[in-house]
Design a protein that fits this description.
The protein has eleven helices and 19 strands. By secondary structure, it is α+β, with helices and mostly antiparallel strands. It has two domains: about 230 residues, ATPase, nucleotide binding domain (Nucleotidyltransferase, domain 5, 2-Layer Sandwich); about 200 residues, Gcn5-related N-acetyltransferase (GNAT) (Aminopeptidase, 3-Layer(aba) Sandwich). The chain has an eight-stranded mixed β-sheet, sandwiched between helices. A six-stranded mixed β-sheet has the order 3-4-2-1-5-6, sandwiched between helices. A hairpin with a 2-residue loop joins strand 3 and strand 4. Helix 1 crosses helix 2 and helix 6 runs parallel beside helix 8. It is globular, with a radius of gyration of 23 Å.
């Protein structure tokens, strides 16, 4: 029987978590031969894992951690049968990191992707800690004074979790409790305390340590893989749950306070000039954009001091915009941000890019409504491609709504081709969802080798 090798990733929190699972009846004696790496064994299943507190820079640690686990297990990446990842809900940029790496690796290996919900991961971990935990309410701090939560019941006959209540986003007081003894998994109890409607013991047991982790992602992912609950790499997508992205006045005040705190950890350069910064290294180690002066506009690296203007344009341009925090997280994670300004200083547009394995993911490209149809989008797209080539990457990947024909036309004019479709990727009106077209621009080897 061919062994199953499953790589599992989770970066939905401030931890960079990686696990390598091997399901092989012939490998039961091999578990103790791989040094001091944390390890879990149950019958024919063996899992090596790494779980590191990396803060906002898990993207820089993820690939090295993957290589280290394969070396520990004396395996090679092509041995992999599938890639599982914690799909969310969770940190916006963290989910994009895990999704992008899972997609990139699975696409290159020609293997399927196994999305595993983060709240189900918490339930799986609670049952791993205590096998009698067969009814689990998983609840995680979603920030913005809200909680991600879901209710699960273990089906002994099926050997799988059943969903009583799907992932939801609510105020802590609005959680609906199970009508039988249960385990409360996750960090919501620590974050919100008495605001949660938690009954007294013995009706409820709290497992503070049942948090997102690659080990339960691997175990739940193995069952999903065997049951055929997989997707093609281009169909893998984060589960954000949070459709409410516009912030209240009080929440924006909290964001400003977070911005000040971020300065203490080296995130952002509030107050510094954004004009015509030269090529080199930015404050957080990400390469900066060449200061390019055109007839009436110029490009510069996005910094913390740009974000209030960026977030304001985002809200004007999109019905479902990124939040200020999403942009802050992107800068803290070392993603590329580019601003296009008029020579008077007016912000015309911007884009955000995330390098993933061997390609660049264009996460956001936006032109201010008053600056549209004047070439700003094309200027930003050219800069995104220039940066990607400079990084010696193989191409650029992006998602776009089918209902945005002007954007699709711009990308097609530039050479992007549609390579797939992700179902229900974007939030839409009336609590519905819209698909995403996946488009890719592939660089020739000569263009990559010759990039300056």
């Amino acid at each position: 029987m061919t062994p199953t090798v499953l790589l599992a990733l989770d970066t939905s929190t401030e931890f960079c978590s990686v696990a390598l699972l091997i399901a092989d009846p012939a490998a039961t004696a091999a578990a103790a031969t791989h040094g001091s790496t944390p390890h879990y064994s149950a019958g024919a299943v063996h899992v090596w894992f790494s779980h590191e507190l990396t803060g906002s820079v898990s993207s820089t640690r993820l690939l090295p951690a993957i290589r280290e686990l394969f070396d520990t297990a004396s395996l090679k990446l092509p041995d992999c049968s599938a890639v599982a990842f914690g799909a969310g809900p969770g940190s916006f940029t963290g989910l994009r990191t895990a999704t992008g790496v899972a997609q990139g690796l699975a696409f290159g290996l020609g293997v399927p992707v196994v999305p595993v919900g983060t709240l189900l991961v918490c339930a799986e971990f609670a049952r791993l800690h205590e096998p009698s935990a067969t009814r689990v309410l998983a609840a995680l701090d979603a920030r913005m004074n809200e909680v991600y939560w879901a209710d699960f019941r273990w089906d002994r006959a099926a050997g799988e979790w059943g969903t009583v209540q799907a992932a939801s986003l609510d105020l802590p007081e609005a959680i609906v409790l199970p009508d039988e003894p249960f385990t409360l998994a996750g960090n919501a109890a620590a974050a919100f305390g008495e605001r949660l409607p938690v009954p007294a013991a013995p009706a409820c047991r709290i497992d503070f340590d049942a948090l997102p982790h690659a080990l339960p992602v691997a175990l739940a992912g193995l069952r999903a893989l065997r049951a055929g609950r997989t997707v093609a790499p281009d169909q893998a997508a984060p589960e954000y749950v949070r459709n409410k992205v516009a912030q209240t006045t009080a929440e924006r005040m909290d964001a400003r306070a977070a911005k000040a705190a971020a300065a203490n950890c080296g995130c952002g350069r509030s107050g510094q000039s954004h004009r015509l910064r030269r090529a080199g290294r930015s404050h957080n180690g990400a390469p900066t954009v060449n200061g390019v002066l055109m007839a009436d506009r110029y490009l510069s690296s996005m910094t913390e001091s740009d974000l209030d203007e960026v977030a304001a344009i985002e809200k004007l341009a999109y019905e479902f915009p990124w939040t200020l925090g999403n942009f802050q997280d992107s800068l803290c994670n070392g993603y590329f941000g580019v601003c296009l300004r008029h020579v008077t200083g007016t912000l015309l547009g911007y884009c955000v890019l995330m390098p993933v394995v061997d390609e660049m993911h264009l996460l956001n490209l936006c032109v201010a409504p008053q600056a549209q149809h004047a070439g700003a989008g094309l200027t930003l797209l050219r800069e995104a491609v220039r940066i990607s080539r400079h990084q010696k990457l193989d191409g650029v990947l992006l998602e776009v709504r089918p209902s945005n024909p002007r954007a699709i036309q711009l990308y097609e004019r530039f050479g992007f081709a549609t390579i797939g479709r992700r179902k229900n990727y974007y939030p839409a009106r009336h609590r519905s969802r819209e698909d995403a077209l996946v488009m890719r621009l592939t660089f020739s080897k000569e263009a990559v080798d010759g990039a300056a």
